[in-house]
Write the structure tokens for this entry.
Amino acid sequence: MKIKIKDKIIGKSQPCFIVGEIGINHNGDINITKQLIDLACKYGFDAVKFQKRTVEDVYTKEELEKPRENPFGPTNGDLKRGLEFGKKEYKEIDKYCKEKNIIWFASPWDIKSVDFLEEFDVPCYKIASASLTDDKLLKHIKSKGKPIILSTGMSTSEQINRAIKVLEGSELIILHCTSTYPSKAEELNLNCIPALEKRYKEHPIGYSGHEPGILPSVLAVCLGAVLIERHITLNRTLWGSDQAASLEPKGMELLTRDVRNVPLMKGSGRKIVYDSEIPIIEKLRKS
């Protein structure tokens, strides 16, 4: 199955769709956001993604009041509110991405955030791993009739099956994911990609990676992933919980370079002698 998001087609035999997850790595600064969008454009990413929350709906009063020193104040609530963009910022993001001709969308964590994003007519929705078991949210996202990208971190096969059943009838892309930041090599379990592909034949399969470096993401494409999502940052040493699991500009450059080269490197599978090998044959073979 192939799924279209704006002018991009996602599926087998199509170029891998590469998403730069800005998430909360903007640290509440629209200028950092624009710099990250610029980098995503420069290095050939297809889209950038954000996270949208209605803070008082997603977190309890007790959670928001917990002490947590951060750049915005002394409590967890100060942090969550400081990192949350509102209508003014998203209008600017929408305008800037249109100027740069890059797709943007977001992971809404609550129903109000879905309705907020609908005002911008986003081309698709991402369901974060943390929201996979939220049937009410999944049904509300499904009601919008747009393509859905479902991340499966920290989820059992039974939970994934249930989410897919709730989303039945939607254009759905399923992402293998491990929800640790950064992920350890022994926890990546990349063989889940062909396993998911075999189990859910009607849905494209992708990969959302939180590992250091780019090798697992490139291997994911070799194993069949048709969409790659990676967090991106200006600098991994910046303040923030997601920075260490993100790609800096050089990593972004190498990711798109190597992912785009995977089909070339895999070749046709038919053993042939290349013209470039003929001079070597003449030089080295005795008979």
